[in-house]
Structures are given as structure tokens and as C-alpha cells.
Design goal:
Elements lengths: L1 H10 L25 H6 L2 E6 L6 E8 L5 E8 L4 E4 L4 H5 L2 H12 L5 H8 L3 H13 L4 E2 L5 E2 L48
Antiparallel strand pairs: 1-2, 2-3, 3-4, 5-6
Length: 198
């Protein structure tokens, strides 16, 4: 790896080394690169393409010194012998067709009901209702008390705003004028983030 990097730096070219991953899975894709940690550490960037056995879609994990860590959904085209980039986030392509369709629709229409999801996707209402409940249990969707779905990490959209406090003028009848008549003294309304100056 050191020799390949020296060659790339000397001549200003990109050198791509194809390696393999170990069989034991890991939470972080860099740990799956076969060999010592120095192998991935010496490279300017490391890309790991993973896919489940028997599936055409995969996820390309990317990290490096001059690139942001990211994941890309990929699909293999056997006739051409190449991979191509898919639209949308990788998790859409790792889900079943039903879940992926629901996720895509909820992303475009946050705060939507199962009935509206069924109408928008062409799926049966019962299928959407049951799958939505499973997706909520799996943490793929969030549902509120009224049955509206949204993606985790997006604002609920159904929480009512805090009503404005009306600016009433409070009076005191305890004060009197010098003639013995009650005087109305206004009390200033002060916001919590303001200081009172006398």
C-alpha cells in the first residue's frame, strides 16, 4: 500500500487497488477490510461494496481523507458486467418492495395516514396498515397518536404551536392620588428574555 501511494503521489495519478473483505461481519465497514488496520489507514480513500447474497442491489460505503463518509445504493447489471448508481438513499433498496414504496411516499408526504399512503402507492390499505405498524416497531417510521406517519428525525408537524400571550394591561386599585381618589397604575408586561430597567 505504501508503494502504491508513493507512486500515486509522485505522478499525480489515481491508483485503485482491488482487495477483499473478511467473512466475519462488523458494525463498521472499515473493520471488514481483510488484513491489518494499516492497510485501510494508508490509503487516501477506502470503498467497500456490500450486498446480501442472492440480491442484485448493494451499498457502496466510502470514507477517506479528502472525501466525506457516505453510502450509495448500487445495482449490478450482469449483461454489461458493471455496477450503476441507484436513485434514493441506500436503505430504500435494502427493504422489501412494500416497505421501500411506503418509505418513499412518506418521505415526500410527511404526516400522512395509512389510507393516503395506500391511495398514493397503489398498495392495499390493510397491507399498508400492517406494514406501517411493523416499520414503526423496527424504527423505520414514526407514528403519532392520530395515526399519521413520518420518517424518524423529521419534525412531527402535528404539534400545535404555543399560542401568543395577549398583552393585557394589569392595573392596581391600591394606589391613590393625592386627592384620595384611586389611581390606575399600569404594570409593564416583560418578556422572559428581557431585563427590567428602572
Amino acid at each position: 500500500m505504501t508503494r502504491a501511494k508513493r507512486l500515486a503521489d509522485t505522478y499525480g495519478v489515481a491508483v485503485v487497488l482491488v482487495h477483499h473483505v473478511r467473512k466475519m461481519a462488523s458494525e463498521h465497514f472499515l473493520s471488514e477490510v481483510s488484513g491489518t488496520n494499516g492497510l485501510a489507514g494508508a490509503a487516501d480513500a477506502t470503498l467497500v461494496l456490500k450486498r446480501a447474497r442472492g440480491t442484485a442491489d448493494g451499498v457502496l460505503h466510502v470514507t477517506g481523507r479528502d472525501v466525506e463518509e457516505a453510502e450509495y445504493a448500487m445495482a449490478f447489471q450482469p449483461a454489461a458486467g458493471l455496477w450503476h448508481l441507484l436513485d434514493g438513499p441506500p436503505e430504500d433498496h435494502a427493504l422489501s418492495d412494500t416497505r421501500a414504496a411506503i418509505i418513499r411516499h412518506v418521505r415526500q408526504h410527511p404526516g400522512i395516514t395509512p389510507k393516503a399512503i395506500a391511495e398514493g402507492t397503489g398498495l392495499s390499505y390493510e397491507n399498508v396498515r400492517k406494514t406501517g405498524q411493523r416499520m414503526n416497531a423496527d424504527g423505520q417510521l414514526c407514528v403519532n397518536a392520530t395515526g399519521h406517519y413520518r420518517r424518524p428525525g423529521t419534525p412531527p408537524g402535528d404539534v400545535p404551536g404555543v399560542p401568543a400571550i395577549p398583552a393585557h394591561t394589569t392595573t392596581s386599585t391600591n394606589a391613590h392620588t393625592h386627592e384620595g381618589q384611586p389611581a390606575l397604575l399600569p404594570v409593564l408586561a416583560v418578556h422572559a428574555d428581557e431585563e427590567i430597567h428602572q
